[in-house]
Amino acid sequence: MHIRQFLDRPSGSLSYLLACPESKRAVMIDPVADDLALYLGVLDEMQWQLDYVLETHLHADHLTAAASLRQATGAKIASGDAQMQNADCQLQEGDRLNIGKLQISVIATPGHTPCCLTYHCADRLFTGDCLLIGDCGNLCDNGADAGRLYDSITRKLLRFADETLLYPGHFQQGRQVSCIGDERRNNPLFCGVSRDEFIARMANRPCQMAARCNEIAAANRQCGIPLSKTN
Fold first, then answer.
1. Tell me, what CATH number does 193's domain have?
2. Has residue 160 got a pLDDT over 60?
3. Do the Cβ atoms of 130 and 146 come closer than 8 Å?
4. Using N-to-C axis directions, what is the helix angle for 66-73 and 36-46, rounded to 10°?
5. C-alpha neighbours within 13 Å on the C-beta side of residue 66
6. What is the pLDDT of residue 227?
7. What is the residue range of 172's domain?
């Protein structure tokens, strides 16, 4: 498997381009609109055909490049959130996507938002804003739920093997990649922390929202098309 990781510094967001070496078919996870030209440049340079754009959740901190990538490449947009009205595919727990010889499994990991998804490919987990490096996603979204987030992480993600690589949705603590063993042993929100303790901690955690978050979320419901272009 070929993997390219992209860091959008203004939002701290991480995006991923995965490709099958044999077929040169590719999939993009959580693309950022400001980095569209970079993604298209890599696809052209590597001669990869983009089949899918996968969203882990409805983002409120950056505008997605999903619609622009679909227009440029013909890729299908897939999401677990029915609010993304222009998506081509609605994904749920247990679904699988085949990208050449790559098989991507869908894991429902709600909590940060009600419809968060994690994508599992080989020995890698692409967790979006659910499980972060030494941290987890905030609870600022409508429908966010600390108990569900704790269950998603402890009952699903932290049960993978220690060596499973974690590719999160955000740059954290100067790091861009972790592994499940490291998070199980060292993440202060989950190591030796009960469900009730976690819920209490999250209730006291300040919620910081990105500027223009409502405008960004509204555009992302249209897969990244600004409202001015939909009216």
1. 3.60.15.10
2. yes
3. no
4. 30
5. 31
6. 53
7. 2-230
Judged on CB neighbours under 10 Å (0-12, 13-18, 19+), 70 is buried
Lowest mean pLDDT among 34-38, 137-141, 179-183: 137-141
Amino acid at position 26, single letter: A
89-90: strand order across its sheet = 2-8, 13-19, 25-29, 49-54, 76-79, 89-90
Q: Is the pLDDT of residue 122 over 70?
A: yes
What is the rounded distance in angstroms from the CA atom of residue 54 to the CA atom of residue 148? 22
DSSP, residue by residue, the chain: -EEEEEEETTTTEEEEEEE-TTT-EEEEES-BGGGHHHHHHHHHHHTPEEEEEE-SS--SSS-B-HHHHHHHH-PEEEES-TT-TT-SEE--TT-EEEETTEEEEEEE--SSSTT-EEEEETTEEEEETSEETTEE--S-STT--HHHHHHIIIIIITTS-TT-EEEESB-BTTBS-EEHHHHHHH-TTTTT--HHHHHHHHHTS-----TTHHHHHHHHTTTT--HHHH-
> What's the token pair of residue 62?
């950056």
Q: For the chain, how many structural domains are there in total?
A: 1
Angle, vertex CA 58, rays to CA 53 and CA 60, nearest 5: 120
Is 23's pLDDT higher than 70?
A: yes
**pLDDT-above-90 percentage for the chain:** 87
Average pLDDT over residues 95-119: 97
pLDDT in tens, 190-231: 999 999 999 999 999 988 777 789 999 999 999 998 655 544
